[in-house]
Write a structure and sequence with these properties.
alpha+beta; two-stranded parallel sheet
Length: 118
């Protein structure tokens, strides 16, 4: 409610609030599978966008590493905080009639189309 008051004071109105729904297990898998080049910063994923040679960057030949915070324990902790802090907002915006929940597990192009259509 404080956010609603702040938005009114700033003359900001919302037409829609979009929530992309993705199961926690899938988020954990996506994040823990990330690999980043230690030289050029290019991103890869062991399942969705693997490098041609394991742990070697396709672009510069640098070593692919796992970020310290890309581990299951950290991701699960962040997801717990997200759910705890976001649930009241989802209820608030649902009551306002502006919440749109979309399936975030679809292909990026499909999710984008769903967002535009919302």
């Amino acid at each position: 409610e404080a956010l609603d008051e702040l938005m009114k004071d700033m003359s900001i109105s919302l037409d829609k609030v979009i929530s992309l729904n993705v199961p926690d297990e899938l988020i954990v898998g996506r994040i823990t599978g990330r690999r980043v080049c230690s030289k050029c910063g290019a991103s890869f994923h062991v399942e969705f966008n693997p490098s041609k040679e394991e742990n070697v960057c396709d672009y510069c030949g640098g070593e692919l590493t796992i970020r310290k915070d890309d581990n299951a324990e950290t991701v699960k902790s962040r997801l717990g905080a997200y759910h705890e802090q976001t649930a009241p907002l989802i209820d608030f915006y649902t009551k306002m009639g502006v919440m749109v929940e979309l399936d975030g597990t679809k292909d990026v192009s499909e999710v984008t189309a769903d967002m535009i259509a919302a």
